[in-house]
Amino acid sequence: MTVVAPTLRLERKLLAEFDLIISLDEVGRGALAGPVAVGASVMDAAGCRRRVPEGLRDSKLVTEKRRPDVAARAAAWVQASGVGWASAAEVDDGGIMRALGLAASRAIDAVVALGASLDGALVILDGNYDYVSRVHSAPLQVRSVIKGDRDCASVSAASVIAKVARDDHMSALHVDHPAYQWDRNKGYASLEHRAAIREAGLSPFHRASWAIADAPTLF
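== Ribonuclease ==
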């Protein structure tokens, strides 16, 4: 199957109306353990004239071996980037949509801290639901874009940056919790992960409301 590369077609169109685009995408939404993460990438009119990095795709379409290199080149290509996090406890306390909103809000704050201005900015959010506006402290202009991670290069950049950051985080957690093999499954409901939950129970990093040993395998 031929995979079509993302473009800046939508971003260029939107930058005729807005000064800046902040693109967001989430990773870790369906995991049993670990945080949910949202990547943010910043694109302006000058950035839209630069060539999209070779190999940039939605993170799910980039092999694990290639992702770190693609993420590094994506981060160098956009004007700024950042990752926001919401912990497993926050997922349990407020639900996944609330946690996604918290992570997205923190990702926006991260790029604002690097100099991005929300005045005249549009937030592009992959998917069909705006989970960030109700959470962020400042008013936002948000546009949800279905399959934005596949079609919009700036969202693809946010996707792969967030994926590499979260995978690294889960591999680091694996050191102290090797039974769950998070270095391999990254907290998702693999057979080995479910077996470890049955054997060892839950860690402090599990989403206690989700960690059902016999949940369907997600990959």
